[in-house]
Fold:
Amino acid sequence: QVQLGESGGGLAQAGGSLRLSCAASGPTFTFSSHAMAWFRQAPGKEREFVAAIGYSGYTGANTAYTDSVKGRFGISRDNAKNTVYLQMNSLKPEDTAVYYCAARPVARSTRVYDYNYWGQGTQVTVSS
Structure:
């Protein structure tokens, strides 16, 4: 069984920063061989892709972002700690949502249904 646990959410002012973390664990889960991603879901809206990072052996462009966060958010991973991060800078009120961590084997994807494992989510609220 795989467990993903997000942390780091909270309240920020517009223009501020937050750093989300997602720690992965499981007896048979090999973190380095999984792509990791962040999605978010605002009230009344569908869950949407935010950022993804491919597994450690990926030789192509290893990260992807939705257009609305490019240049503001950065995704990274620490395989020694089985943790993926989302650094969020220049936050805007429209970034307010529950942020979810997700994992899938090997190749990164921007599609919700491609991911096998999900965390419980962490709330991010940005005030204007």
